[in-house]
Write a structure and sequence with these properties.
Helix 1 runs antiparallel to helix 2. With 244 residues, the protein is an alpha/beta fold. The chain folds into two domains: 39 residues, no CATH class; 183 residues, 3-Layer(aba) Sandwich (Rossmann fold), CATH 3.40.50.150. The strands form three sheets. Strands 5-4-3-6-7-11-8 form a seven-stranded mixed sheet, sandwiched between helices. Strands 1-2 form a two-stranded antiparallel sheet. The chain contains seven helices and eleven strands.
């Protein structure tokens, strides 16, 4: 793998002389661990539609259904950065909608295990089609209503993204029970009521290192002969950690 090779070349620049004055390469134990670490974590998964290593897939590359919400690219970037994914993270994406977070996470974490949870059959099939569209093979789609369906998931997550749900407080409490220590949870809120429920739940659960960000994004759009800026609906992104 190219990344591991570059790391070894960099580390091998550190050299020493033997008893005969010859230059020999030597790696410390720490450098050996670094080289092994780089070898285990390859580049993000290549995609036929998105060959870049950075997230932020344009919205129009996803298949959509009328009335089904989708996290805009700019909000998606906030969510992904708040998740702080690792190459082998286990992620639950609850209320996955169009599946944009699941697709981006699947591409970013080639060794990860992503579960997209959606209660509607048609929307679940939409997520599957978007995964196929981008060549993502490490996303499993579960059809069910949270929090009840979460008990069927065998593996506890390292990261959880909650993009929707009728019982947001019940979902948060069940997720918190299953979340691994040092895990992270990210929830979005589009309304004042949703913001209050997530904030109250974070306080009840004693979530640590809480961050709250509200997006304020304008996009340049062409309308007739003119170009104007159109605002994207603001979204609150709340995140925090489970330290125990």
């Amino acid at each position: 793998m190219q990344r591991a090779s570059h790391s070894r070349l960099f580390l091998l620049k550190h050299h020493q002389r033997d008893n005969f004055g010859n230059s020999v390469h030597a790696l410390s134990c720490q450098q050996q661990r670094q080289t092994l670490c780089f070898s285990l974590y390859p580049f993000p998964m290549p995609s036929p539609l998105w060959s870049y290593v950075t997230p932020g897939i344009p919205d129009d590359l996803f298949e959509r259904l009328p009335g089904i919400p989708m996290s805009p690219r700019e909000v998606r970037l906030l969510i992904l950065s708040s998740l702080r994914l690792e190459a082998d993270s286990t992620l639950w994406d609850i209320g996955s909608g169009t599946g944009t977070i699941a697709v981006e996470a699947g591409l970013l974490c080639p060794q990860g295990r992503i579960t997209a949870i959606e209660r509607d059959d048609d929307v679940a099939n939409l997520i599957r089609r978007n995964c196929d569209r981008f060549g993502v093979g490490n996303v499993e789609v579960m059809e069910g209503s949270a929090p009840e369906c979460l008990t069927a998931l065998p593996e506890s997550p390292h990261r959880v993204c909650i993009e929707g749900g009728r019982s947001i407080k019940a979902i948060l409490h069940e997720v918190w029970r299953r979340l691994q220590p040092r895990g992270r949870i990210v929830a979005t809120a589009a309304t004042l009521e949703g913001l209050y429920q997530v904030s109250e739940s974070f306080a009840e659960l004693q979530v640590r290192n809480i961050e709250v960000v509200q997006s304020a994004v304008n996009r340049l759009e062409k309308r007739g002969m003119n170009q104007t800026f159109a605002a994207i609906d603001p979204i609150f992104v709340l995140s925090g950690e489970k330290l125990d």
